[in-house]
Inverse folding.
């Protein structure tokens, strides 16, 4: 049965009606028009749907909306502050770390989560953390370069 | 470019790219365009030989609105100086929105930011067969350069007329026509104001040579890049319309199954749910995806199944079921292969098996369909917007002008989005629900109901003389395809044949098509001949190769790679190269082996590539490295597993694609031939990685690797690739 949930997303409060097991992804995309978060597999295997919950990466396609209440959720739309891109977004642009860019939102959100917890990750930490995100176009080396660039920029990161 | 010209340029579309014959359609006339875009300069690129310059007020032979039937591209410069370019090509990540804009900006002498590309909207753009076959750069880029050069000429003439001077004394500079002598200048918008001019191509305007390019040839960043890092860009699966429902198809239990009965009562009772049963098509539409899924799951459907071939017998099946003597066969023969093989002492035969693989574009097929009485509009991710328009028109018995297909820049395709499956499903549901309906395939649907890169069997026999000159080459490809099947090595006696098969799985185009399989078989076989002759594989290739540009990628690439450097113990080098879609490539791989564990590691990869004058070196590097990474998947582990009409690995947790950790250090060596026409780069660079890797492992282990993917074969020999 649809239930009312209140969600805190990108600093704003939303009230939605959804089945408890409806995915956070479907709520974001279909009810709140936050379509920057993408569907890629529905089983948490590709990372296209990654959002931050309390600063950490979560796969919204396998996150029931009922478990997302009371958390601070950040989607790709909430990363830039006014006109200022987040350092990770900026780094992806500067490295040209995309082709079709369908994976880009999820890549950026995962990278932000990584850098939230490790300001200067080693290469193997980057690989380990990003292993769950698929870029079918094969831009992985550029994404790694973007993460290194953002890490070096060493700016204040969103939590 | 006309089909004839494409054929002349060696760009014949491969059979798997064509699902329906191309029709040339031009509906909108000039009047419509000025109405739509306002006054200005309108440049049309016609494929037929019509050359005319027409100013407003003058009529051209055949009447004012009688535009030619075959149109490739058009451009409009509005009264505010805004430049809009219309092309049927589409953006799927290959970065052509950027590279085509560069071509326009270059020839028209304007900043990149003033160019807007309208792509893949069947209502607004000229007919285009589709975005495949690496034709955008050699064909469309060139056409847009010509269109832009013509527009520049119109602007120069306008200024010359205004200033009563010779256009040859004027120059186009950053959106202005400048008269250096008298220090006068006028912006394009000032010149265009109040004009209504149509310029028809082809006119033989000189193009700016690549050596003088300022915008083309530069690593210009992706157009609209910011929209992609902020989540703002709307992909087909993001499209939304007022009152839209979400569609869900109830799929057959296996391939070839037919619908016997369906109990849809529970679904029909759900609020807002529409159920459609039309032949074997069974689907629902609902106000949300979770509800649509619930409604679909509530349907009890009974399917009649028929036995289907399985993966374990696929290669025998393909050989046994080859269709002989058909028109679809392609056969090339020179000299006398039998005689040459029989008389040679250095004979070698091998058989290669190629698995079905999936494109797995990260954005699955998606479409939003909306009916307005009998007018159908569909937003969908497809490489063939006009092809999908035809499919829709046929399915719904509509004239094509009643169907508009629009393709927003899409989450990749790799040749996998040529058909309109999701568009048809969404349109069928929307007609029944009388509301717009969006269908987005699940990953499982994408892995099951899309089409695959064809599986195949390839038999190669060859002979060489003691000096290392090839004397005979016999090559048979069963089912995987004819792309790249001809050998570029000099062999006097050849028989090369493609044998089509009615494939048990739905199959179609895939990045570089069968050229991957054919290059793999050819290049791996070359190393085995070289080994039997005790020759260096690179030296053996060069001995049998005349083509200068192909020699150059092998030779320059090998220098860059350090082919002649001493190889450390337990390290092997491999090379694989070739020519495809007008591009020349050679990939070099170094692998290392831990003998105690059997672990093989790819130490580094280098691909040398020549695609003529480089339009965007950054975009090119991105394509080159990306293609190599995608190619690693098909080379090592990707394979569709199927049994009796079911796909067994239809999820990312069961179908492995390359991930971060799978990527070795990769380098691109670009040969910028400014004296040669620019050609495509999205496909050819994928060809070298599989044979180069197999050859590097062969050099190290002497195991001939004859399967794509090669991972399972390696494991059976006690090795594993990491």
């Amino acid at each position: 049965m649809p239930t009312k949930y209140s969600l805190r997303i990108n600093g704003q409060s939303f009230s939605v009606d959804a089945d408890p097991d409806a995915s956070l992804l479907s709520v974001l995309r279909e009810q709140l028009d936050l379509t920057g978060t993408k569907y890629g597999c529905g089983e948490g295997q590709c990372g296209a749907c990654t959002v931050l919950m309390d600063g950490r990466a979560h796969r919204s396609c396998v996150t029931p909306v009922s478990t997302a209440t009371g958390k601070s959720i950040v989607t790709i739309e909430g990363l830039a502050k006014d006109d200022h891109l987040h350092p990770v977004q900026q780094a992806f642009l500067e490295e040209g770390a995309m082709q079709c860019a369908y994976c880009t939102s999820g890549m950026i959100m995962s990278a932000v989560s990584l850098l939230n917890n490790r300001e200067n990750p080693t290469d193997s930490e980057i690989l380990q953390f990003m292993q769950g995100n698929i870029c079918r176009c094969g831009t992985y080396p550029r994404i790694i370069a973007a993460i290194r660039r953002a890490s070096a920029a060493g700016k204040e990161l969103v939590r | 470019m006309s089909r004839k010209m494409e054929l002349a340029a060696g760009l014949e579309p491969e059979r798997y790219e064509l699902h329906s014959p191309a029709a040339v359609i031009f509906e909108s006339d000039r009047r419509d365009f000025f109405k739509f875009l306002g006054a200005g300069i309108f440049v049309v690129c016609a494929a037929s030989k019509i050359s005319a310059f027409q100013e407003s007020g003058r009529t051209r032979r055949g009447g004012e609105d009688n535009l030619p039937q075959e149109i490739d591209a058009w451009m409009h410069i509005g009264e505010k100086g805004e430049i809009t370019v219309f092309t049927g090509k589409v953006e799927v990540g290959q970065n052509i929105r950027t590279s085509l804009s560069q071509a326009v900006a270059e020839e028209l002498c304007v900043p990149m930011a003033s160019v807007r590309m309208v792509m893949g909207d069947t209502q607004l753009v000229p007919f285009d067969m589709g975005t495949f076959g690496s034709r955008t750069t050699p064909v469309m880029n060139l056409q847009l350069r010509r269109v832009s050069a013509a527009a520049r000429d119109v602007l120069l003439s306008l200024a010359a007329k205004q200033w009563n001077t010779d256009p040859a004394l004027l120059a186009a500079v950053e959106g202005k026509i400048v008269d250096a002598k008298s220090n006068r200048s006028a912006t394009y918008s000032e010149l265009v104001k109040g004009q209504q001019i149509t310029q028809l191509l082809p006119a033989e305007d000189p193009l700016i040579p690549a050596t003088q390019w300022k915008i083309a040839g530069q690593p210009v960043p992706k157009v609209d890049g910011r929209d992609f890092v902020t989540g703002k860009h709307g992909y087909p699966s993001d499209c939304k319309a007022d009152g839209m429902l979400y569609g869900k198809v109830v799929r057959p239990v296996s391939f070839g199954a037919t619908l016997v009965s369906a109990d849809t009562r529970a679904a029909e009772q759900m609020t807002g749910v529409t159920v459609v049963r039309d032949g074997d098509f069974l689907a629902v539409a609902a106000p949300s995806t979770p509800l649509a899924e619930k409604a679909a799951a509530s349907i009890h459907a009974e399917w009649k199944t028929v036995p289907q071939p399985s993966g374990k017998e696929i290669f025998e099946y393909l050989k046994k079921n080859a269709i002989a003597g058909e028109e679809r066969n392609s056969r090339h023969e020179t000299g006398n292969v039998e005689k040459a093989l029989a008389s040679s002492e250095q004979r070698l035969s091998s058989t290669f098996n190629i698995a079905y693989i999936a494109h797995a574009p990260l954005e699955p097929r998606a479409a939003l369909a909306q009916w307005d009485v009998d007018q159908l509009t569909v937003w969908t991710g497809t490489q063939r917007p006009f092809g999908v328009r035809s499919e829709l028109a046929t399915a719904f018995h509509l004239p094509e002008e009643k169907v508009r297909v629009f393709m927003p820049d899409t989450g990749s395709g790799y040749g996998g989005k040529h058909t309109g499956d999701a568009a048809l499903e969404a349109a069928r549901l929307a007609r029944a629900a009388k509301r717009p309906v969006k269908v987005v395939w699940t990953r499982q649907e994408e892995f099951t109901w899309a089409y695959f890169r064809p599986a195949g069997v390839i038999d190669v026999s060859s002979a060489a003389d003691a000096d290392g000159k090839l004397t005979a080459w016999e090559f048979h490809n069963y089912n995987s395809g004819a792309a790249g099947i001809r050998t570029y090595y000099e062999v006097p006696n050849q028989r090369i044949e493609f044998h089509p098969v009615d494939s048990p799985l739905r199959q179609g185009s895939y990045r570089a098509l069968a050229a991957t399989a054919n290059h793999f078989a050819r290049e791996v076989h070359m190393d085995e001949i070289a080994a039997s002759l005790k020759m260096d594989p690179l030296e053996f290739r060069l001995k049998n190769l005349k083509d200068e540009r192909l020699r150059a990628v092998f030779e320059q690439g090998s220098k860059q790679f350090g082919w002649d450097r001493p190889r450390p113990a337990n390290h092997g080098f491999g090379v694989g190269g070739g020519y495809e879609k007008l591009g020349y490539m050679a990939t070099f791989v170094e692998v290392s082996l831990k003998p105690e564990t059997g672990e093989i590691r790819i130490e580094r990869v280098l691909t040398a590539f020549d695609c003529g004058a480089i339009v965007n070196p950054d975009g090119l590097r991105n394509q080159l490295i990306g293609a190599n990474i995608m190619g690693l998947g098909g080379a090592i582990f990707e394979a569709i597993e199927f049994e009796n009409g079911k796909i067994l690995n239809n999820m990312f947790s069961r179908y492995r694609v390359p991930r971060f950790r799978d990527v070795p250090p990769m380098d691109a060596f670009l040969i910028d031939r400014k004296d040669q026409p620019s050609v495509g780069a999205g496909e050819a660079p994928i060809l070298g990685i599989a044979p180069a890797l197999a050859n590097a492992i062969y050099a190290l282990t002497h195991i001939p690797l004859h399967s794509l993917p090669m991972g399972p074969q390696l494991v059976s020999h006690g090795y594993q690739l990491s």
About this structure: Strands of chain A lie at 3-9, 12-18, 50-53, 56-59, 72-74. The first strand of chain A starts at residue 3 and ends at 9. Residues 46 and 156 of chain A are 27 Å apart (CA to CA).
